[in-house]
Amino acid sequence: xxxxxxxxxxxxxxxxxxxxxxxxxELRSAGLHVAFVSNNSNSPVGDVVAKLDRMxxxxxxxxxxxxxxxxxxxxxxxxxxxxxxxVCGGPGVREALASxxxxxVDDGRAAAVVVGFHREFDYAALERASRAVRDGARxxxxxxxxxxxxxxxxxxxxxxxxxxxxxxAGATPEVAGKPAEPTVGLIRARFGTAGVVVGDxxxxxxxxxxxxxxxxxxxxxxxxxxxxxxxxxxxxxPAPPFVGDDLGALxxxxxxxxx
Length: 259
Fold this sequence. Notes:
Elements: E1 2-4, E2 11-12, E3 15-16, H1 18-29, E4 34-38, H2 45-54, E5 64-66, H3 67-76, E6 84-88, H4 91-99, E7 103-105, E8 112-115, H5 123-134, E9 138-141, E10 147-150, E11 153-156, H6 158-169, E12 174-175, H7 181-191, E13 196-199, H8 202-212, E14 216-219, E15 224-225, E16 233-234, E17 242-244, H9 247-258
Parallel strand pairs: 1-4, 1-13, 4-5, 6-7, 6-8, 8-9, 9-12, 13-14, 14-17, 15-16
Antiparallel strand pairs: 2-3, 10-11
Helix pairs in contact: 1-9, 3-4, 5-6
């Protein structure tokens, strides 16, 4: 199977990466299962599926794993059903917590705090989240990606928001998204034990491939380049087994390797 990242691989913001759409169609035509594993926790799964469909990539909710789902799963392993979790994140985190029987709250007493990407982050959110962590709430980051690629450049990612909360709270978070164990476990449970990871960020997608024991296919349509751009990453040395300008450029090699 092919575990494909979204931001910087399938799209940049609201703009599709056209070669990726064609590449996914070819991979599926070759009999490969293509699923989507994203560190972006902001959107509910239904919104992710709808966005894929608008870009000509049919998918079902079962094809999607997000860092919000990983964070909620992680907390559900130890918290009592109905436990209050303060959300410093988007609607995708709230949906994931509800699916695990946990109560998402905006302020006050909480057993845990989840910090993820959301554009509404401000000083008040920073104060609420850091205060809850200082008061003893478990501190979970959906992921530590410092940036996300959109049309025209990069924007601050969840890791930038997590860093602010960690600094204000004087605490280190548990991480749920790629390449951490909660995401590894969800991928194995849902998609099996053999495949390839396609992504644009060696420190998360590449590290996830290593954790799974799978090959890594690095695309240069997101945050990585031969020379690291500001806020981005450089191609590792040694390079991963597959490197291409975009997913479409790697499709034939992936089909040859996996079929």
